């Protein structure tokens, strides 16, 4: 899957969650639910990077070469950052599962209760 296609897929998946909107602080996209970020997304000529909060999957996520704890102290709170270039091979469903975990972690429990079980 191309990086452009992956970006489109992540963006569409993020916006499909209840009460989600896209904001643009610091030159990147921030996907928020009720004002709280669950996905940062940035793409340039070098590749695509995104950050998500993964309290349950964090240790598993960090085994991949394209992941690292998120900077600015967020890594200590369960955030991971993925950096992909055109040569990186990754299953998009894995990333969508992480996105789902991040949304469910950040969203209010009443909104999460409206989602199908994961």
From TrEMBL:
The keyword Coiled coil does not apply. GO terms for molecular function: DNA binding. Pfam families: YjbR (PF04237). Keywords: DNA-binding. The keyword DNA-binding applies. Gene3D superfamilies: 3.90.1150.30. This is MmcQ/YjbR family DNA-binding protein. It comes from Sphingoaurantiacus capsulatus.
